Predict the structure.
Amino acid sequence: MTSVVRTTWPLLLGILLLMVGNGMQGTLLGIRGGIEGIPTFLMSIVMSAYFGGFLLGSLVVPRMIQSVGHVRVFAALGSLISAVLVLYAVAPDWVFWAAMRFVIGFSFCGVYITAESWLNASATNETRGQALAAYMIVQMLGIIVAQFLLNTGDPAGFLLFIIPSVLVSLSFTPILLTAQQAPAFETIKRMSFGRLYRASPLGCIGIFLMGGVFSALFGMSSVWGSATGMSVRDISVFVAAIYVGGLLLQFPIGWLSDRYDRRKLVLLLSVVGTVVTAAAVMLQPGILGLILVGAIVGGVANPVYALLLAYTNDYLDQSDMAAASAGLLFINGLGSMAGPLITGWLMGLIGPDGFWVYMGVLLAALSLYAGWRMTRRPSLTVDEQGSFAVITPSATVLAVEAALDEAQSSPDPDEAAIDPTDLDGDAPDGEADPDDTPPANG
């Protein structure tokens, strides 16, 4: 891992600064919206716009890169991000914010795609797994660091909007000045949704539901915190706990997924998430209890997302991974767009508890559906199953496809599990129709 960081540090540093900027603006807007008196549902529209822009970016940016190249796209979209981060404070109006969030979601998708393609091209076959693991860790660390930077200024002023703008501007320096040449880029074709659903109904439904859970966590946590009267410090710690939980639990759950039926893990984790969110509503814990709840829900959401991607992959030929990943991320994007809107509507209807109720209902639905699917197909053996890859919900299709492809080449699940910085791991899977052929990559 040390050698990987040494050779890819410009890219990783740039990505870290990008994630700090993105993490700050998401939480800061929720807090500032409360200060400005913007109603919860209108703030949910603002938060949803980011995921709409991100989804559009996943469709449009690859064509832009093919037309004008990585460097121009990266620089142009980066400039847009830096400008929007400052403009938020100029016009604290929900319509303007929603438009800017859409632009910033589109732009962040573009810079992620270009950064991930550079990172993938800069790694060798031997180091790609570790490079991708480092990338995922850096992504989450950036968001965690961002939460603590929120305590350096007044959210009612300009400073906290200027800081992420400067960090995003600085992030392009190490990336654009790296000696690594821009890689060739090919648009990834998408698999039909019908074929994808037939391969794994649980994967499709589960990814849609988890898109809603993740977008509520990422987009609405600070809105919820402001609605409950939490201080900026408490909101920042709560949001950081979500990502700390996701970071810490990815690897042990990945280790378990190499040895047990993935459907059982999805079922177990979604039940845990359901119980914890219900406890948050019924017990009304203090800030320490809420931080623990946030860490557990974050620790459930991130690994379940990766489990569902790897699970679906077990029923596909390796040549179909890229197309399937693109389709799954599109489904996830649709769920993500709906998440903040429904959460905001519920919070307006029943109060701040709607934040937990929404996620609890989605996690309960996932547990019920996973349990039902277990009655429809017998499980695969461990030898027939593919490999687990650590993937965060914010990764684009390039990183997802590369991580899954790299994971399939892991020769020894026990050896891969020893090193938590390695993305590799042989995972158990779940379901195989009696009339299905065995997975080609099992």
In short: Confidence is low (pLDDT under 50) at residues 411-442.
